[in-house]
Design a protein that fits this description.
The protein contains 3 helices and 3 strands; from the N terminus they run αβββαα. It is mainly alpha-helical. Among the domains are: about 30 residues, no CATH class; about 70 residues. Helix 2 packs antiparallel against helix 3.
């Protein structure tokens, strides 16, 4: 079966496509890093984002951490070889004071998020109660909203337990 001209690719076009694919794959291997901004609106809603808002000063900025690479992929250990260390060799080390400050900041962020999530859960429960009194209310959606907030609180409590 003969191919029509529209489906044929010249060697030059194949090379260009291969080059573009190579660049795309190289770019996909780069780690995503960004600063994190915390904003609180006039209603007290807390928003964490990696996008700065023009004209609005964030309450907190967590800077990007340049130079930190993901740890290398673990390989199988040969019998008789020494056990790997708890921390990979290229992993950045910090003193205990710096780590304590980082843990304190993380704890503070998680506690703020927990308070915000508890308020959202209270609101979702109130909406569920109000929906129960209204015919035609989407009770499944309201119950799902309560479950989502409960699960978020559970996960935040779990994260907090790791750094307390």
């Amino acid at each position: 079966m003969a191919m029509t001209h529209a489906f044929r690719r010249s060697p030059t076009r194949r090379r260009a496509t291969a080059t573009l694919m190579g660049f795309a794959l190289m770019g996909a291997g780069l780690s995503a890093q960004a600063e994190i901004y915390k904003f609180v609106d006039e209603h007290g809603m807390v928003t964490y984002t990696n996008i700065p808002r023009p004209g609005v000063k964030p309450q907190l900025v967590i800077p990007d951490a340049p130079g930190i690479r993901p740890p290398p992929v673990a390989t199988a250990r040969r019998p008789g070889s020494p056990a790997p260390s708890a921390t990979p060799g290229g992993f950045p080390r910090v003193d205990s004071g710096t780590q304590r400050k980082r843990d304190d900041m993380r704890r503070q962020l998680l506690q703020e998020e927990l308070r915000s999530e508890q308020l959202n859960l209270d609101g979702a429960r109130a909406a569920l109660a109000a929906g129960a009194r209204q015919p035609g209310a989407d009770m499944a959606r309201l119950r799902d909203a309560v479950r989502v907030h409960e699960k978020n609180i559970e996960m935040l409590d779990k994260e907090l337990s790791y750094i307390r």
